[in-house]
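Worked problem 6 (solution included).
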Amino acid sequence: MPSKDLITAFQESTSQDFFALYTDWHRQMKRQLRPLHLTHPQVQVLAALQALTFEEEEITQVMVAKKANIDPMTASAIITKLAREDLIDRFPGKKKLRTKALRINENGQEQLSQALALLHDFEKDYWKDQNPNRQALIQAVKKDFN
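Solution. The predicted structure is:
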């Protein structure tokens, strides 16, 4: 059985402080995106796809996963859902016919623009929010790194 000291050390660790802060941030983020019917990972994928259109002629699922910093299987599920919701287009690739190429469509660009504007304001406000509970979480994480 773990000792009381080990349990206390775990409960007071930076990891636990960070987890509490992340949980709060994630909950608030979801609330912001709910009116757009998007999740944060979906915004990540749309943003990665849009960014890649400035750099690449043909974009694949693997490229999007790498750019979005997410697992390829997770990216696949998100891309399938975004295609079903008519935010991205999938079509046969020119370089490899077996590969599907991706493109963010007009609907996706509009949703992404709205999401980025919302998230820009959210991020700015979240980190400077004077909510005492949130500030306590931020300070707890910071103290562990000083």
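Discussion: The mean pLDDT is 90.
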